[in-house]
């Protein structure tokens, strides 16, 4: 396994190249986007489609390491230079099994942001959060207003979801961000067992999984 990883890393080093740009002193831009995560990168890409606009994308972290190109190694990226290394504050009813009662909360400090270190998982925000932002005076940030943009950036490829009766109402296949489901058929037997145990825990709690 380790030999395969080494060969994969060597191949990626030869084929993975990221363009860099050094702004000149006094240079002006039409848009400056802070944060090169999924949202910032996608926004920069969309804005730069207009040839008349100059767009600058700023990211606090550096280029992704070769390890980020191997999905199965995502846990090794936590608590590294590609992670902001945030920690929860100690509380009486959470993180009781962790050192000093504090859980880690990994957030990507790297081009690609947290999507670079999160195991290729994606989810939409809780509608209640958006409604709270709108009630706080942020017009246009309610979930109904934001929802079309969730669909717009999505390129859903999961056949089992696309085949559902109301799939087109909630998902899109024309966006710039490919999204697919976790395919159990491609996994080794030990990973499948972990998956089954995880699903079994949900069922024991009476939850659908």
Automatic annotation (TrEMBL):
Gene3D superfamilies: FAD/NAD(P)-binding domain (3.50.50.60), Glucose Oxidase, domain 3 (3.30.560.10). Pfam families: GMC_oxred_N. Residues 29-160 form the Glucose-methanol-choline oxidoreductase N-terminal domain. InterPro entries: FAD/NAD-bd_sf, GMC_OxRdtase, GMC_OxRdtase_N. GO terms for molecular function: flavin adenine dinucleotide binding; oxidoreductase activity, acting on CH-OH group of donors. PANTHER family: GLUCOSE DEHYDROGENASE [FAD, QUINONE], GLUCOSE-METHANOL-CHOLINE GMC OXIDOREDUCTASE. Belongs to the GMC oxidoreductase family. This is Glucose-methanol-choline oxidoreductase N-terminal domain-containing protein.
């Amino acid at each position: 396994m380790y030999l395969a990883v080494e060969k994969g890393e060597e191949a990626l080093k030869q084929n993975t190249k990221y363009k860099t740009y050094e702004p000149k002193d006094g240079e002006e831009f039409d848009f400056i986007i802070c944060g090169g995560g999924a949202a910032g990168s996608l926004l920069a890409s969309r804005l730069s489609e207009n040839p008349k606009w100059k767009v600058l994308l700023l990211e606090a972290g550096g280029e992704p390491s070769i390890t980020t190109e191997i999905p199965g190694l995502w846990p090794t990226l936590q608590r590294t230079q590609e992670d902001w290394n945030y920690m929860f504050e100690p509380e009486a009813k959470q993180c009781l099994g962790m050192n000093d009662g504090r859980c880690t909360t990994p957030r990507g400090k790297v081009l690609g942001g947290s999507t670079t270190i999160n195991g290729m998982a994606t989810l939409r925000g809780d509608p209640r959060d958006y409604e709270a932002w709108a009630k706080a005076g942020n017009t246009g940030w309610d979930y109904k207003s934001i929802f079309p943009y969730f669909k717009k950036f999505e390129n859903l490829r999961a056949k089992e979801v696309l085949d559902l009766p109301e799939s087109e109402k909630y998902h899109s296949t024309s966006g710039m961000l490919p999204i697919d489901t976790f395919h159990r058929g491609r996994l080794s037997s030990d990973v499948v067992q972990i998956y089954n145990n995880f699903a079994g825990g949900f069922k024991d709690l009476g939850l659908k999984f």
